[in-house]
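re: ur msg from earlier - yeah i can do the fructose -6-phosphate complex, just paste it... oh wait u already did. ok heres what im feeding in:
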Amino acid sequence: MCGIVGYLGKGNAKSIVLEGLKRLEYRGYDSAGLSLLDEKQNQFNIYKEKGRIAQLEKIIDLNDARVAIGHTRWATHGRVTKENAHPHQSNNGRFIVVHNGVIDNYKSLMKTYLPDTVFHSETDTEVIVNLIELFAVKKTPANAILEVLKLLEGSYALLVIDINTPETIYAAKHKSPLLLGKSDKGIVIGSDMMALVNTADNYLALDDETFLRITPKNFTLYNLEGEVLPYTMSLLDLDDFSSEKGEFEHFMLKEIHEQPAVLRRIISKYYNDTDIHIDKILLEKIKAHDSIHILAAGTSMHAGLIAKDLLESLANIPTQVHIASEFAYQQPLLKGKPYFILISQSGETADLRACLVNLKKEKYQTLTVTNVRTSTLAREADDYMEIYAGPEIAVASTKAYTAQIAVLATLAYALSDQSFDLKRELSEIAQAMEHFLDKKDQYKDLVAATLTKRNCFYIGRGLDYYVCLEAALKLKEISYIQTEGFAAGELKHGTIALIEEDTPVIAIISNRKTADNTRSNLNEVKSRGAKTLTITTESLKETDDQIVLDDVNPSLSPLLTVIPTQLIAYYAALIRGHDIDKPRNLAKSVTVE
Ligand code: F6R
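and the outut:
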């Protein structure tokens, strides 16, 4: 959601920033812009376009530059227009700004400080840049920016250029992610590690309420009082999983296929022959609590539901799952000694950050389970566990979901006194995933024949129901088919009224205990005209079942049953010609509440 990239140094700032912005495309955006130093004219040119970065590239008439800042916008304040796209320039032209985040008090700042200013966009960002201009009349640019930062309420990652000192970029961060990368060629700054790839050797993930003055060779870090802060850079250690599409037509298809490898990687990171590699101190810390509360959003919340089941059944710890955006503002009554697990692929989700800030104030212990070890939620929780899924580029999350479940299963197991061979179970699941994916081509026609309506239902019970919730989210977000995941037994209490001729109903049946009941529910919808499709396992299959998976440990079945549902969503979107990796209105990293 919104992306920022800035660069100064040797090399072509234009292509470094455009390349960085493209790497952030997966976060989701609806317009893009760039400001480049035109050295011959000694001025900054600004280019903006609605739509994709490819459109923006077409209008840039400068070849080279040593300084550039760029932005991809996901509209929050104001419509998707060229005027609202960043960069924004102050009215006398002196300052140029790109901004991620939301300034909650921009209207009152406008009224108090800029009552006569004419604004050219509907954005909160234009208020920031004009405030800097106002304060810079009497102060140095750095002091003017610091003064503005102290007035801002909300979140920001900000890059500022003062055209009077073209070889300096000012940057600031609060609640929106920002990382600085350095090499001997120059300095890159971006809202995501992906923006630093190929340009930096070392990086610094900035803390909240920090401010930077960056020149081509160096930078100084300050707090908002203008005091210099110490810092330590870390080595930028790129993941083994490539962030290119390779042989696959879409990132989503590639990421679906990576799941067996991700499971094996988790095994290699967390298991050896006799032991599990999870910090004993962390395990003791969790055991000292009497309940677990999982906080997450979207797909990660669905992984949390499976984790709840595992933590209760294996580790015997009462566990509840909460939607982060609800918990942040309506914290339930917490009794005893609760422990908190935050699940987030990106580690940047603003709803979770809001929860974490409160939990820290209340002195609760927190653990973040994330794919991005440098992320805000990983840094700010007491502990973190990495899911090792590698970069997930498609907006629709696939491999992060299974990786989250596998890591949380490992945690649940480590907290338990069980002694079955989880490592073997996970590697059997990896094989079963591959076995299914080898046959994937045969399912495209099945999807075309089944999903003929603009709505669809997934039904199941227990863990299968939890997978139905994720399956429905995946289908709706990329195919735009209105889909609901339903507890199969609950259909007859109202929702069955929606079933008519050819309504698609997909059942997931992987548990012997509930298989017969779910089949009865499937028959009930079939006899009302529904077009049904069944996903089941070898030992539970019946003659007409269309998708049959290998048998695996039933308590881990979601790791396998979710795979065909990801593929169903993929094919449904492919058949409809949608932009699979970048579905409309969605962002990969949801950094606003
Ligand atoms: C759906 C999807 C979202 C995310 C949600 C939370 O495919 O990706 O529902 O799961 O926005 O994001 P993270 O896990 O980054 O906190």
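cool cool. The longest strand covers residues 31-38. ping me if u need the other ligands too
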